[in-house]
Amino acid sequence: MKLNPSYPLLTRILLPILVVVFSISCEKSKTIVDFDAETKINVAYGDDPKQTLDLYLPDNRNQLSTKLIVLIHGGGWSDGDKNDLNGLIPSLQNRLPEYAIANINYRLARNGQNLFPTQENDVKKAVDYLLNHANDLGYSKKLVLIGLSAGAHLALLEAYKYPGNIEAVVSFFGPTDLIALYNNPPGPYIPQMLQAVTGATPTSNASLYMQSSPTTFVNSRSVATLILQGGKDPLVPVSQAELLKSKLDANHVAAAYVFYPNEAHGWTGTSLEDSFNQIKIFLNANVN
């Protein structure tokens, strides 16, 4: 039998391709593993006792289809705890069962210690931990950040500074421009609080205030953003939400602004139910 002279050449070309395709196929088959439901409390992502997080991992999740919501509590960067958000978790689970949920703590700025950007750095460290352990814990590397008040500010900063695997961010009444907040506060306690957690004023350290303002980092590649704001908020004025929405619109970023005219700094009841429904609609539209 006469062999085709091109056969060895074709073999040399096709064999490596087939090996690569086979390897990728095997890798995918190893990756798709359905995990059982699991809750992990106070998982350490750093050495400090405050650098912990809770994980709520749904049944039948896997590393390809299960996305991750990261919750970030408020408290003026100097107070609060992840346990403050425990009551929100069932509502998120009911509406978004395809998501795993992480609820994180971070070090607090108190008595001149842990000044900003400690809190920002802790959020980044927690997010990095969650990404690094995605395979082991059974969820994908598609993240959504949801924060309240100071936690919303931290969520926006993380999302705009380090978008990477972050698909969307949700801000419940979060500060967005610290210089504007300092110079146009709703009350005299706001500049005092900002100075206490930063150790500076916009005059003495303009760079810190700029680098700590989410609006500084908005550009055309910024992640989809949902802003939830009360019209009677005594701590974070409506102008902060409007500043962010204006900048997102100017950069043609997917963004929605839901305004609750009669709500203050946080709300319950039908307004909160509506907020959860808005989150579901927004994530379904913007996170694949």
Characterization of this structure:
It is a single chain. This protein is an alpha/beta fold. The chain has one domain: Rossmann fold, CATH 3.40.50. Helix content is 40%, strand content 18%. It has helices at residues 7-31, 89-95, 118-132, 134-137, 150-161, 178-183, 189-198, 206-211, 238-250, 269-286; strands at 38-44, 52-57, 67-72, 99-104, 143-148, 166-172, 224-230, 255-260. Strands 1-2-4-3-5-6-7-8 form an 8-stranded mixed sheet, sandwiched between helices. Strand 5, helix 5 (150-161) and strand 6 form a beta-alpha-beta unit. Helix 3 packs across helix 5 (150-161). The radius of gyration is 22 Å and the shape is globular. The protein starts with 6 loop residues before the first helix and ends with a helix. Residues 17-31 have low confidence and may be disordered.
Give the % helix.
40-55%
Structural class: alpha/beta
Spatially, the strands of the biggest sheet line up as 1-2-4-3-5-6-7-8
The quaternary state of the protein chains shown equals single chain
Strand/helix succession:
HEEEHEHHEHEHHHEHEH
CATH topology annotation: Rossmann fold
- The structural domain count equals 1
- Count of alpha and pi helical runs: 10
Mean pLDDT: 92
CATH class annotation: Alpha Beta
